Task: structure prediction
Amino acid sequence: MQVAFTKDKTLVLKGIALLLMIMHHTCVPTYWAAEGTTVFTELGYFQSVTKMCVYIFAFLVGYGFFCSSNKTVKYSLKRCLLLLVPFWVMLLGMFVPLSVGTGTFPSVVGDNFPKAALNIVYNMFGISESLNWYSWFIAFYIFSILSLPYVHKLIERFPKYGWIAVFLGSYVVECVVRLIPGWDGDNPLHAFFFFTTLFPVVLMGYMCARWNKEGEIPSWFEGKNRIPLAILTIFVALAIMAIKIPTFGFCLQALYTPFLIFAIVGISNALTPRYITKGLIKIGELSMYMWFFHAVFFTTTVNLYTKALVFEPFNCFLWTLLMTFILTYIGSWIIKKLLTPIIQKIK
Result:
C-alpha cells in the first residue's frame, strides 16, 4: 500500500519549509538579545529547530527526481536551468545593483577584472555567497541533481545495497575533503563539501520515493487515529535538531528527516483544512523564488537600504518576521509572473 504523497503534498511541505526558513533567518539571536541572556539561548534553540527547512528541501530534491518520468542527465540540466534563470534575474537585477549602490561591490567581488569576473561567476552558481547569503543551495542543487541520474543507474543495477554504498560513500568523501589543507577557504571545494554533507538526505528522499512506489513505506502515520503518533514524531525530530548531537560530520538528519516528512504527510492526508492547505501550496509554489529573494533584507553587502523595510519602525522579532514574509511573497510573485513565459519555454 502506497502512502498518498501527491504533488500537492510536496508543495505543502515546501510551504512549511519556506516558513521555517524565514523564521530561521529572522530569529538570529544577535538581532534581538545580548549574548548570555535567557532570550539569546532560547532563540539559539529555536534557530536550530527551524534549520530543519534545509533538510526538508534536500529530501524533496531526491523524492522529486525519482517521481520524474525522465531520469537522465538532460532532464537534470533542464532542472538546473529552471532554478538558475530566476536566480540570475534576481542576482543581476537586484543584488548586484544594490551592492553597487551601497558601495560594497568592489570589496565584494574584487578590484581587478579577472578576479571580479570570477567572483561574479561564483555568485551566479552559488559557489560564493558574497552577494546573496542564501545562494549556497544553487551549487548544492546542481551537484545533487546532476549526480542523481548516475545514482539511479547504480541503484537500478544493485537495488539492495547500491544505496547503502552511496550513503556511506558520501560520508567518506566528506571526510576526505576535510583532510585537504585550506578546504574551507576554497569556494568550489567548500561548495562541494556542502554537497557531500547533505547528499545523504537527498538520497533518502530518492529511496523513500522508490520504497513508497513499491509499497514498502509503513503506514504508521496514516489515519486520524495516528495523528498523535505523527505529532509526537515531529516533536522528537525537532528536539533532536535542537540539542545538536555531535556526529563527527555525519548527517544524522538523513536518518530522521524521512520520519518527520511522512508524519507531516500523514497529518495532511488525515486532515483537510482547506484554507491552510491552499495557503501552504501557494507558498510552496513560490518557495524557490522566496528562498533567494528574502536574502535582500539580510545580506550585509546589499541591505544598507533594504534592511529598514523589515527592521523598522518596530524593533520586534514578530514585525521583522511578518514584513519579511509579506515583502518576500509579493516580490517573488511579481518576479515569477514576469518570468513565467520564459520558464514555460524551458519546460
Notes: The chain has 16 helices and no strands. The chain has one domain: 22-346.
